[in-house]
């Protein structure tokens, strides 16, 4: 197989913010919306695995990567407007959303009934107070003080996306291990892979998106698109519970739990992802919804 050509382009969102995206592949248009602590590059291997079948558009969400800033009016509506602008510009009718990006994809499907398919990978909806309140204030104080390892520990404990041993270890040890991880990752980072230190500020904004989803489960009853609810058998129980809840309200949906995979499944291989396995499920669903 020859090298896949990747081009860089941009679109202007409703409020004037520039959203930059990569394009690769050939076929029906498919937008991949990344999740928490990611940029578009974080899912570029997933896009490569899909590029033989789809024209993949891989944006950096606002405030991340090459795209414009969050802006004073940031929230879920701004993210929906960003994705809507990209769909208008490309004519794509299929969307894959990862984590918080899956929330954006599902809400865009409500506003855009013509969207044909959505693949929602483990959206972190806040169902019945799933996430603790008040942690963002502590996170912001630690970030402002330059204590990035401490802030990341605060975020990972609150969102329950860290390894299971995080829940039983003293904070001081967790902060030390996180600081070591940051240094090791920065030394090893190559090829545009964003580091956790660079992406740490984005946790504040993804937390804001999740907070906006509290008690809004019924709104997804109006989604007309075919939806694949995708997750991993090793992912946290609260994310599996969201998929189960969405199964009960989405009118046209299928669910797949990928054996042995977790919340990092869509990421590049260097970040413990299994993009080829995820791509196989996406191809299967979109070609036979």
From TrEMBL:
SUPFAM superfamilies: alpha/beta-Hydrolases (SSF53474). PANTHER family: HYDROLASE ALPHA/BETA FOLD FAMILY (PTHR43194), PEROXISOMAL MEMBRANE PROTEIN LPX1 (PTHR43194:SF2). InterPro entries: AB_hydrolase_1 (IPR000073), AB_hydrolase_fold (IPR029058), Carboxylesterase_BioH (IPR050228). Keywords: Hydrolase. GO terms for molecular function: hydrolase activity. It comes from the Bacteria. The lineage of its organism: Bacteria, Bacillati, Actinomycetota, Actinomycetes, Streptosporangiales. Residues 30-279 form the AB hydrolase-1 domain. This is Alpha/beta hydrolase.
């Amino acid at each position: 197989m020859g090298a896949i050509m990747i081009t860089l382009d941009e679109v202007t969102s409703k409020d004037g913010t520039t959203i930059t995206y990569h394009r690769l592949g050939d076929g029906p248009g498919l937008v991949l919306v990344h999740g928490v602590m990611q940029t578009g590059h974080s899912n570029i291997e997933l896009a490569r695995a899909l590029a033989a079948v789809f024209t993949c558009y891989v944006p950096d969400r606002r405030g991340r990567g090459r795209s414009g800033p969050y802006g004073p009016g940031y929230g879920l509506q701004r993210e929906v407007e960003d994705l809507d602008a990209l769909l208008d510009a490309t004519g794509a009718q299929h969307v894959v959303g990862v984590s918080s990006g899956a929330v954006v994809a599902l809400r865009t499907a409500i506003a855009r009934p013509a969207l044909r398919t959505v693949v929602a990978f483990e959206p972190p909806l806040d169902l019945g107070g799933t996430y603790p309140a008040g942690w963002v204030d502590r996170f912001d104080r630690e970030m402002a003080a330059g204590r990035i390892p401490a802030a990341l520990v605060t975020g990972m404990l609150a969102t329950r996306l860290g390894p299971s041993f995080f829940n039983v270890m003293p904070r001081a040890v967790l902060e030390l291990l996180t600081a070591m991880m940051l240094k090791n990752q920065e030394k090893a980072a190559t090829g545009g892979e964003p580091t956790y230190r660079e992406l740490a500020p984005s946790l504040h904004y993804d937390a804001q998106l999740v907070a906006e989803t509290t008690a809004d489960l019924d709104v997804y009853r109006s989604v007309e698109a075919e939806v694949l609810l995708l997750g991993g058998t090793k992912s946290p129980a609260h994310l599996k519970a969201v998929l189960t809840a969405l199964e009960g309200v989405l009118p046209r949906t299928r669910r797949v739990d990928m054996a042995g995979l977790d919340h990092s499944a869509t990421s590049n291989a260097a970040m413990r992802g299994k993009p080829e396995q995820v791509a196989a499920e996406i191809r299967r669903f979109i070609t036979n919804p």
